[in-house]
Specification:
Layout lengths: L1 E6 L8 E6 L5 E3 L9 H5 L1 H7 L6 E4 L9 E5 L4 E10 L7 E11 L5 E11 L13 E5 L5 E7 L5 E7 L6 E9 L10 E9 L3 E11 L10 E9 L1
Parallel strand pairs: 9-15
Antiparallel strand pairs: 1-2, 2-3, 4-6, 5-6, 5-10, 6-7, 7-8, 10-13, 11-14, 12-13, 14-15
């Protein structure tokens, strides 16, 4: 399973898109609204507490440019989960941002789509936020169920992922990380970094990483950054 980045040059909005490919079905458009359960975020207390009376609220695609990739998790049995973010806007593309809704696309070890489930709503900051604001992406795992975070990486560019803030070891323990080269032999092809984590006990913690040139210090600007909110059930 993997992610394909698609460009629709003649669309008025949302010109970029993500497809989950190489499974069953052969591709899944994460922005196909028919596949997304709509009741979850509307019934979420966090949503209701800040948007009472805003009946025009709708889901819109999040950043699909490749700067904010979907979170890809692989479990020991070969099953896989992709966590995707969506913007909740008050009725139109240029309307006020109310927050972000997160959904998980779950695939079994054979690559067959099993479920699309709602995870969490995160409100936009009180100051309205900025276009660069990205909330922590939630990951929900069972206690004791080891998982691997898969991150696109291309060391030929000099970049690699760096752990900025480790999760609380009492909740989630970092087991190790490794780079896996691509199957393609084409010059400059990128591979993946696999970061394996072991949930220890119920609780929540955060994990923060950035994608930077090797040898650079923390003052240098990162090409990408991710923040994950890990909930162990």
């Amino acid at each position: 399973m993997g992610v394909a980045y698609v460009l629709y040059p003649f669309r008025a909005n949302e010109n970029q898109a993500w497809l989950l490919v190489n499974g069953s079905p052969s591709f899944v458009d994460v922005d196909d609204s028919k596949a997304l359960p709509q009741d979850g975020w509307r019934q979420d207390h966090s949503y209701g507490s800040v948007t009472a009376g805003l009946s025009k609220a709708k889901l819109f695609p999040g950043d699909r440019s490749g700067m904010d990739d979907p979170s890809s998790l692989v479990f020991a049995d070969g099953s896989q989960e992709f966590v995707v973010s969506y913007r909740v806007l008050n009725g139109c593309h240029s309307c006020a941002s109310l927050g972000y809704a997160f959904y998980a696309f779950d695939f079994d070890p054979s690559g067959k789509l099993q479920a699309v489930k709602y995870l969490r709503f995160v409100r936009t900051p009180m100051d309205g936020g900025t276009s660069a604001y990205t909330p922590a992406r939630p990951i929900q795992v069972a206690s004791g169920r080891m998982f691997t975070l898969v991150l696109p990486s291309n060391p030929t560019t000099g970049y690699s992922w760096r752990l900025l803030s480790a999760p609380r070891g009492s909740v989630v323990r970092l087991v190790g990380s490794e780079y896996r080269p691509p199957a393609s032999q084409a010059i400059g092809s990128g591979g993946e970094e696999h970061w394996t984590l072991q949930p220890v006990k119920s609780g929540s913690t955060y994990l923060k990483m950035d994608y930077v040139r090797s040898g650079k210090d923390h003052k240098d600007e990162a090409a990408k950054e991710i923040v994950l909110s890990v909930i162990v059930e």
